[in-house]
Amino acid sequence: MKQIPLASLLLALSLAPVAQAQKKPAPAASATDAKMKQYIDGLMAKMTTEEKIGQLNLVSVGFDVTGPVVSKDVDANIRKGLVGGVFNTYTPVAVRKLQEMALKESRLHIPLMFGYDVIHGHRTVFPIALGLAASWDLQAIEQSARIAAEESTADGLDWVFSPMVDIARDARWGRISEGSGEDPYLGSRIAEAMVRGYQGPGNDLTQPNTVMACLKHFALYGAAEAGRDYNTTDMSRQRMYNEYLPPYKAAIDAGVGSVMSSFNDINGIPATANKWLMTDLLRKQWGFQGFVCTDYTAIPEMKEHGMGTDEQVAALALNAGIDQDMVGEEFLKYTAKNLQSGAVSKAQLDAACRRILEAKYKLGLFADPYRKVSAERASSTLMKPEFIAAARDIARRSMVLLKNDRNALPLKKTGSIALIGPLANRQRDVIGSWSGAGDWHQAVSVEQGLRAAAPGLKITYAKGANIADDQQMLDRLQAHGGELEIDKRSSEEMIKEAVQVAQSADVVVAVVGESQGMSGEAAARADITLPGQQLALLKALKATGKPLVLVLMNGRPLAISWENQNADAILETWFAGTQAGNAIADVLFGAYNPSGKITATFPQVVGQVPLYYNHKNTGRPYGGVKLDKYKSRYLDVSNDPLYPFGFGLSYTTFTYGKPTLSKSTIGPAETLTVSVTVQNTGNVDGEEVAQLYLRDMVGSSSRPVSELKGFQKVMLKKGESKTLTFRLAPDALKFYNNDLKFAAEPGDFQVMVGGNSRDVQMVPFKLVAQ
Ligand code: NOJ
């Protein structure tokens, strides 16, 4: 077995400059590859129609149920050659059992392909994607995917259902936790980094430690109306191209091997039946050569969308360009009939079957169906010490310091703290949702992390509140294995106990937020404040007069205005994974200086959502004059976010000089260079994420007030300053106009540089036609 030694892997990753992230890597082995074509031609010539249809069938079997129904008759179907892929099964033993069934007992011995929801790590769990994004650290993000590839392949997997690159601007949507947030530029860079991490830099999927990635959910799933999961999306093409599609396109350009269709309806056509999306855009415009699977039972769900009978929805999906049916079994049951009636063609079936077989070929499954999977490899790879160390480092990079008055943080390792809150001792919650192969018993809670880091500190724990009290919500969370621990005492009793504990401590550390099941799939919330009695608990703790440090755990931006006004410090930790508690301790005690910045705007109140920094100006922008009546604003709250996109503090301070430009007027083919000096003006070393935004002042279509076009994460020693250089190539000034033409329009622009999307310094420049 050839394995890349982790040391050289990490070295290679740490040497990869950010600029390289934007280069287009070599595409995955091309569909026209002559040898592959010859092999698959030969195989398909032997296949019956039924066997070809079988390749289009993806079944769920094994450890997890990730949708509303389960696949039946799996063994019999594998033997008959009626299964192309399996998901929710892993471990060398379980995979080998099914693979042997296919290889030994099916007529043509075609290997199965094994997929799984490896979303933010496999056995070693990293922060949820929204947390990873908050690191703004492409090397760390790539490294998390690389380790997930090492582990998942060692566990028998060929295929991971990640990256999820859906742009989301609505904090009510539970799946905002699974993506990179609201920005298309950052989302694109992260999409590329994830694909590179999973598939390896050369996209060689035959390597035993590379895994095929699956880009999801195509498309626009994050724009579900009202933030309610699976809901409708209705969007102009112009908005799609400028704001929502770039991360999908970036992953395609990076060579992602497969794509998953989304559940939602797009301008009246469900994604899974959407020929424009799956064929015209994805294949013809973007040149995608891999295969497309549906999301879980998305084909039969089209009956609920009102798209017709079983036969009809099966035909719609195949004709749209879908190749594989996840759990729905509509292709399996209705394609033969649809061929007879002429609703689908043989050519369409052959094309879909060929794409699945090509994926297996690219994975090397025909050459070695076990892909070097063995119990020995699994035991020497899964959760090895280097991976655990990386998980701790990546977790602390994802954390965002939202407030820190009078240096409440870092904490001292002496004296006493009252550790309060329903999440303070939770191992299950810290690994977040979609952490199926992660064993939460191996995760580190905040309490465990603090005790390990500061044995001399007196730590007294009180729960203080349940994570939620609303019985309906509790029932829903428990119904899907939420594993909540509900304290039967009254909330008054619990708060009273917590207050007593707080009174005898020097500092209160309150670990509050959401349980892991409150974000992720089917976990929309209409109220995004702290659930249950947690706010009442915080108010009582505040009344003790003790310094109040909040450690937040949550999978979405929360509306935490009271908390922001009243806590002395707030550390956003998301669901930080296997090493959460140790990483949180590193940050709280100052062993690591926080450097994360949020990538989804935090609103003051839920009524402001969707709230995002790159909005349009309107014809009546509110200028902050209170009595200005006819303006685009609310009567009861300002337009401001609680924390703007890109915001995050450090234990040190950074000062930005005025940006300077290489030229004040440029032509259409010229690259503009922007330089800015950033200085660490505080007392400790730290990392800063310098962000560059652009505003196109006049356009043939109205333009956003600001758009991220570059960023650099830079380490500055105490007192040190560095001059950073950003290059704005001609494409950075372009946008899709009303005719969907991608072009830059001459006129005035503003460059803005700063430590977040709000606190920036501006410099104008002009683009001229020649
Ligand atoms: C449904 C989810 O939407 C998708 O993200 C996931 O990959 C599949 N189920 C498989 O579990």
Automatic annotation (TrEMBL):
Q: Organism's domain of life? A: Bacteria
- GO BP, sorted A to Z: carbohydrate metabolic process
Q: Does the keyword Signal apply?
A: yes
Which top class of enzyme applies to this chain? hydrolase
Catalyzed reactions per annotation: Hydrolysis of terminal, non-reducing beta-D-glucosyl residues with release of beta-D-glucose
Q: Where is the Fibronectin type III-like domain?
A: 688-757
Gene3D superfamilies in UniProt: Glycoside hydrolase family 3 C-terminal domain (3.40.50.1700), Glycoside hydrolase, family 3, N-terminal domain (3.20.20.300), Immunoglobulins (2.60.40.10)
Q: Which GO terms describe its cellular component?
A: periplasmic space
Per its UniProt record, what InterPro entries does this chain match? Cellulose_deg_GH3, Fn3-like, GH, Glyco_hydro_3_C, Glyco_hydro_3_C_sf, Glyco_hydro_3_N, Glyco_hydro_3_N_sf, Ig-like_fold
Q: Keyword annotations for this protein?
A: Glycosidase, Hydrolase, Periplasm, Signal
The Enzyme Commission number assigned here is 3.2.1.21
Report the leader peptide range.
1-21
Quote one Gene Ontology molecular function term.
beta-glucosidase activity
Q: Where in the cell is it found?
A: Periplasm
Which PANTHER family did the record assign?
BETA-GLUCOSIDASE (PTHR42715)
- Family from the record: Belongs to the glycosyl hydrolase 3 family.
**What protein am I looking at?**
Periplasmic beta-glucosidase
Q: Which organism is it from?
A: Hymenobacter cyanobacteriorum
